[in-house]
Amino acid sequence: TRVRAADEGSPPAAGEAAAKGKSAPTAEQIKEVGNLVEDDEWLGLGMELAIVLRSAIRESVKGSAREFLGKDSYEFGDLGLEADRRVKAAVAEMRGKSEYELGDLSKALDQIAKDEVCKLAGKEPGEYEFGDLSIEVDKRVKAAVCDFSGKETYEAGDLTRTIADKTAVAVAEFTGRDTYSFGDITRELEQRRAAWVKNYLQTEDYKFGDITTKFVRDFTGKEDYQFGDITKAAIKSFTGKDEYQFGDITKTIGQALFGNKPRKEKD
């Protein structure tokens, strides 16, 4: 009766375990076993799907290769050979030949370059002559120089003369002189600098340090500032002395690093 009750109230495995006198598995153990079975099933399904996907990709590649090669069976190197054959056929067609010969590619590229030069020079393809590119470049450069210099025809030296003339005009406008002499720009810069200093300081008697003094006075609002006051104040704050003597900064740094060393008294 106990065995039959166990069979009716528990899974088959639990009933068998009870019939043999073993303890029946708990609900947690049964759930764990079920999860393991489900995991195995998912892993198996994933492997099957991977195999199917790999097979589909392989068949797709084979189909593309068959279409490219024009044959059902693929052998190692077929793609490279077919690509080489197609390139050679295209070069032969470009050269107007039935079969490709060694050197045809170089000749085809040379012909393409020459045709492009013909387009640049305004000639029909196939009418290229040696020197066409140099002649066309020279013609375009001269046309640009004529446009820059304001002339209709180019003459040797036009570019140099035009640059010199335009430079002279710019210098004349800058210096206010009709004719340029060597050093005019430097002298004009010096005069403008002196005029600026005079206007800034409101004095003609300029001395070294006046600009710094004026700037610091304007910046700090202190009218009694003298050139060097900032440096003196910084040294005073560092050394703690009102008057600076040579070596004070070095001594202050040494004292800060090593401290004052006691002197030995002589007997």
Properties at a glance:
mainly alpha; flat
For the sheet with most strands, the description reads: none
Beta-strand content: under 5%
Q: How many helices?
A: 11
Give the termini distance in whole angstroms. Answer: 120 Å
Mean pLDDT: 75
Helix content: 55-70%
Large-scale geometry: flat
Helix/strand-derived category reads mainly alpha
* Poorly predicted segments: 1-10
What does this structure look like?
This protein is an all-alpha fold and 267 residues long. Helices cover 68% and strands 0% of the residues. The chain is built from eleven helices and no strands. The protein has helices at residues 2-9, 12-19, 27-69, 78-94, 104-121, 132-149, 158-175, 184-201, 210-220, 229-239, 248-258. Helix 1 (2-9) packs antiparallel against helix 2 (12-19) and helix 6 (132-149) packs parallel to helix 7. The radius of gyration is 49 Å and the shape is flat. The termini are far apart. Mean pLDDT is 75; it is low at 1-10.
Report a brief summary of the structure:
With 267 residues, the chain is mainly alpha-helical.
Please write out the topology.
Layout: H1 2-9, H2 12-19, H3 27-69, H4 78-94, H5 104-121, H6 132-149, H7 158-175, H8 184-201, H9 210-220, H10 229-239, H11 248-258
Helix pairs in contact: 1-2, 6-7
